[in-house]
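Design job #97: recover the sequence.
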């Protein structure tokens, strides 16, 4: 439809050309084998979105090491060469469907609720996340109090992100997205009440963003020029939806400008409502602040199901790409439906029951 033309204009993120501005947002689907290998069900799942017209797919969070990074049982990994090779089938299927795909690299930190490698969790400080683990991701009860991560362990985490990014590149991914949002490890460093460190990684916003920036820089320097690199950032968390940065827009400026200075290619912001003011009742949304203070292409995620809303974010210059989560689950061909003026389906809540894995019947709808 003509009024949605801005959704279909091409864009290049770093070295990666996209045919349109509609992306699949990363969503945890816990459908890998027990040892973190991609399944045929996952290949079909991602292929459906590519054939449905999404220009870019960002994978669910993939754990990068065999120490403390795994967050969920049956979460896919890219910590070994075997795991990386299993992702090649997804990449091939997505490319065959006409889309690009970025691997999202995720260290769960203290928000881990299921790992086959470690009983203990790690975080910037010995402070447990708020709330309780998610039952539809096979969790139960409150989060554990993590062990405070050491300088040596932080160096291991840096190396694991780099190694995972190189494996992703070898598997054929077009880019990597570092997960710095939603309450996982890098976001824990950003979060004032979870980060009580007194070293150079705690205290001021400049210090709390340092670890994420170091990883962005290390990954950007390690991968070749043909692989895009970015980071996902949020205020809210899986277990704390209401969290906001205490420093407001000034803190946002520090975070986004520091991350941009690492040489990455894009930022991906996620909020409950991507179009809502980031702080208080007035002001710009987080995506717009990311755009202003970084100068980078910005992917925005959060309740952009309605094409009118999605287009408005692009028209306002607040974002360059819109990423859809639940709307995409309900409409694997959302771009085709919108372009052809067809009605959009509502989300079937049974997708998340009893656990939020990929169901056989949902693949039949693809």
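Job complete. Output follows.
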């Amino acid at each position: 439809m003509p009024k949605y033309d801005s959704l279909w204009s091409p864009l290049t993120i770093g070295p990666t050309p996209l045919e349109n501005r509609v992306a699949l947002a990363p969503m945890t689907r816990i459908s890998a084998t027990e040892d973190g290998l991609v399944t045929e069900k996952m290949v079909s799942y991602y292929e459906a979105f590519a054939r449905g017209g999404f220009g870019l797919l960002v994978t669910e969070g993939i754990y990068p090491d065999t120490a403390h990074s795994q967050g969920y049982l049956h979460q896919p990994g890219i910590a070994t060469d075997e795991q990386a090779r299993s992702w090649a089938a997804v990449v091939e299927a997505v490319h065959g469907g006409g889309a690009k795909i970025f691997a999202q690299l995720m260290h769960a930190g203290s928000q881990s609720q299921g790992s086959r490698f470690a009983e203990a969790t790690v975080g910037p400080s010995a402070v447990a996340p708020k709330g309780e683990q998610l039952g539809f991701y096979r969790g139960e009860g409150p989060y554990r109090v993590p062990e405070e991560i050491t300088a040596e362990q932080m160096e291991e985490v840096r190396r694991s992100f780099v190694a995972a990014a190189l494996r992703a590149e070898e598997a054929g991914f077009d880019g990597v997205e570092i997960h710095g949002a939603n309450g996982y490890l890098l976001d824990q460093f950003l979060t004032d009440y979870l980060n009580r460190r007194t070293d150079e990684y705690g205290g001021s916003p400049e210090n709390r963003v340092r670890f994420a920036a170091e990883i962005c820089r290390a990954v950007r320097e390690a991968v070749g020029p043909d692989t895009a690199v970015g980071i996902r950032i949020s205020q809210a968390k899986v277990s704390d939806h209401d969290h906001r940065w205490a420093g407001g827009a000034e803190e946002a400026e520090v975070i986004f400008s520091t991350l941009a200075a690492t040489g990455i290619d894009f930022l991906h912001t996620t909020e409950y409502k991507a179009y809502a003011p980031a702080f208080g009742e007035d002001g710009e949304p987080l995506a717009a602040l990311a755009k202003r203070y970084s100068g980078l292409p910005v992917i925005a995620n959060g309740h952009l199901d309605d094409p009118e809303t999605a287009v408005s974010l692009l028209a306002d210059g607040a974002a360059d790409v819109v990423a859809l989560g639940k709307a995409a689950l309900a409409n694997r061909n959302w771009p085709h439906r919108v372009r052809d003026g067809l009605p959009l389906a509502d989300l079937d809540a049974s997708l998340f029951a009893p656990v939020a894995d990929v169901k056989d019947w949902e693949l039949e709808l693809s």
